[in-house]
Design goal:
Elements lengths: L4 E10 L6 E2 L6 E2 L1 E12 L2 E14 L5 E4 L1 H8 L11 E5 L5 E2 L6 E2 L15
Antiparallel strand pairs: 1-4, 2-3, 4-5, 5-6, 6-7, 8-9
């Protein structure tokens, strides 16, 4: 008789339609994608037990990732209306800030001192 048991980490996007915030990574106004990570025990490829739930927010502007408190994450998972503010987020990963040329409007996330399109200094 064979038993197929496994442990794996998974990620699940949660439905959240709250207000936009000023991104702590790049300073731009950004939408938020809330997701949950967890570890799961699989028995014959069927998830049986979940633990180690953590909740995160990914911004739409630069892709920065912030950890959300467990309590607010659980409220979002249950479908309760929750308002997330900048004070609820702890930085996990800072995305690359986007630089914009004031002369031609070109946007880049590279570390240029001058605009590659028109040659003016980026600020």
């Amino acid at each position: 008789m064979f038993f197929m048991i496994g442990i794996t980490d998974r990620e699940k996007e949660l439905a959240y339609s709250g207000r936009m915030i000023a991104c702590q990574g790049c300073g731009r106004l950004a939408g938020m994608q809330v997701f949950m990570t967890y570890t799961v025990l699989l028995l014959f490829f069927i998830p049986c037990f979940k633990w180690n739930r953590r909740y995160y927010v990914r911004t739409s502007c630069c892709g920065s990732v912030f950890e959300l408190s467990y309590e607010k994450g659980e409220m979002i998972r249950m479908g309760d209306p929750v308002d997330i503010s900048e004070y609820d987020l702890n930085t996990v990963f800072r995305g690359r800030p986007v630089k914009r040329c004031s002369h031609c409007g070109y946007e880049t996330d590279e570390d240029f001192d001058f605009c590659p399109k028109c040659g003016q200094p980026l600020g």
